[in-house]
Amino acid sequence: MFAYLVRRLAAIVPTLIFVSMLIFGLQQLLPGDPAVVLAGEDRDPNVVAYLRQKMHLDEPLPVRYLYWMKGVLHGDLGESLRMQKPVRDLILEKLPVTLELAAFAIVIALSIGVPMGILSAVRRNTAWDYAANAVALWGLSTPNFWLGIMMILLFSVTLGWLPASGFVSPFEDLKANLAALVMPAFVLGNAIAAVLMRHTRSAMLQVLSSDYVRTARAKGLSERGVILKHALRNALIPVITLGALELGTLLSGAVLTEQVFTIPGFGKLIVDAVFNRDYAVVQGVVLFTATAYILLNLLADLAYVIVNPQIKVH
């Protein structure tokens, strides 16, 4: 296991280098000159020249990339010229918000999607199966922004049970924090639950028809034991992969949902940075989320062995 982990970590390094080059190179293709945009309406030539020098825009592209990578390796992702704050501080400021929202959404998705998928597979071609598939289809086809607006109208405007928007730190008021996150987390978790349900059902149907499951039933094991101890362990492998990818997506920022509920997470940060031509923020956030994706895939591979010890890593 340790040797496998070392090899995987070693493989991550060239991947991250390639990703960083891709991020930096594509960022330069955006139209417009960030120095001119940041100089304001007057566009004083001296200010523009100063900004171009400060951002190394007067250097060749490979040199600018090396400047940026040198800072990244030292933990310096640059500085937001629009907000006059280090990008690292902005990420650390928004990360707890996005992490809490993503964790909340994943818990909701797993709580709904996996049990529904198991029930749908075990009760195949029954009313339970049709109902679960109908709920999954509804979750896949419902736009997040529409569901968010409808929930605001119902639970905030009509019933007055939950706040319509905003975010409160759990360290300030835990009850207000949970009340503010329950609707956006459900909106995000609803769509993910539908995908998890379909994958869980498909994997469970395949596993339930396998020889070792029939053998376990022939030995007289209870149906509950066959499903939970034998079938579910193998069926969870694709679900773990999907869950890791969905969590990575949530960490990159759920733009529409954050905009609807005014959640100050990564989604709003990167949208504002793109509109303001704040290159350093865009590059820093995208590099962070790409790294999170890669690490989550590694954790998913390690989770396979924990869920099913029969899987060997080499």
Explain what the structure shows.
This protein is mostly helical and 314 residues long. The chain folds into two domains: 2-81, no CATH class; 94-277, MetI-like fold, CATH 1.10.3720.10. It is built from 13 helices and two strands, in the order ααααββααααααααα. A two-stranded antiparallel ribbon has the order 1-2. Strand 1 and strand 2 form a beta hairpin. It starts with a helix and ends in a 7-residue tail after the last helix. The mean pLDDT is 81.
Please report the total strand number as a whole number.
2
Low-confidence stretches: none
What percentage of residues falls in helices of 4 or more residues? over 70%
In the CATH hierarchy, what is the superfamily of the largest domain? MetI-like
Q: What is the strand arrangement across the widest sheet?
A: 1-2
Shape: globular
What is the CATH architecture annotation of the largest domain?
Orthogonal Bundle
Distance between the termini: 8 Å
Strand content: under 5%
Helix- and strand-based class? mainly alpha
Write the layout of secondary structure elements.
Layout: H1 2-27, H2 34-38, H3 45-54, H4 61-73, E1 79-80, E2 85-86, H5 87-122, H6 127-141, H7 144-158, H8 174-208, H9 211-218, H10 223-251, H11 255-261, H12 266-275, H13 279-307
Antiparallel strand pairs: 1-2
Helix pairs in contact: 1-13, 5-6, 5-8, 5-10, 5-13, 6-8, 7-8, 7-11, 8-10, 9-10, 10-13, 11-12, 12-13
